[in-house]
Amino acid sequence: MLIDKIVLTRMVTRIAALWRAHMDELTNIDSRFGDGDHGVTIGKIADVLDRNAAEWDDDDIAAFLAGLAEAIMAVPGGSAAPLYGTFFEGFAEAAPPGVAGIDASVLKAMMSSALDNLQTITKAKIGDKTMMDTIIPAVQAVTSTAEDSTEVILTKAAEAAEAGAAATAGFVAKYGRARSYGDATLGTPDVGALSAAMMFRGLSEGLSA
């Protein structure tokens, strides 16, 4: 399936719906070892996704994603906004200017670019109990497959992301405020990894809706 404006709008709004539905859960988890504001911030980003999708008035996917990234970065509160903004910024940078449809090969390049862009602002890797435990395996699942179906690619990404998020329960936090709690963080999944997994699930479900 080619990802055009209609499809991408569904994907973006599906992410927003999943984030909004899990705001309380994310807040509860973040309150254990973090600032307790992740759910609230994710809700604000969800509002940005919905608003930008509703106001999108042309077919230029690259321009839409670039504007979305900028709007996300402007959301106040914690590290979630700059991290997700940076992800979508990288996503946009690999989309051909003026493109009205994304195929599997372009999608793979966009995912790779999004990860590369994030890695310019964080050194976190798999096992550090951050959103990168979700994003790295999800993008690797995309870029390593020979599949040329966007549906299959995003299903693989969502599955890898959710497995990565679940695995963080077995890690000790190495970044952020949670790092000071050491072994006490064992048994609790990372809140950023969870919200990132929801993002990939939203992309997949929105595509297939």
Entry summary:
The protein has helices at residues 5-21, 23-33, 38-55, 61-73, 80-93, 104-118, 132-144, 150-167, 191-208. The protein is mainly α. Helix 7 (132-144) packs parallel to helix 9 (191-208).
List the helices and strands and how they pair.
Elements: H1 5-21, H2 23-33, H3 38-55, H4 61-73, H5 80-93, H6 104-118, H7 132-144, H8 150-167, H9 191-208
Helix pairs in contact: 1-3, 1-9, 2-3, 3-4, 4-5, 5-6, 6-7, 7-8, 7-9, 8-9
Descriptive keywords:
single chain; 209 residues; mainly alpha; 66% helix
How would you describe this protein?
Helices cover 66% and strands 0% of the residues. It has 9 helices and no strands. The longest helix has 18 residues. It is globular, with a radius of gyration of 16 Å.
Radius of gyration from CA coordinates: 16 Å
Q: Provide mean pLDDT, rounded.
A: 96
Biggest β-sheet: count, sense, barrel? none
Shape: globular
What's the SSE pattern? HHHHHHHHH
Which structural class best describes the helix and strand composition?
A: mainly alpha
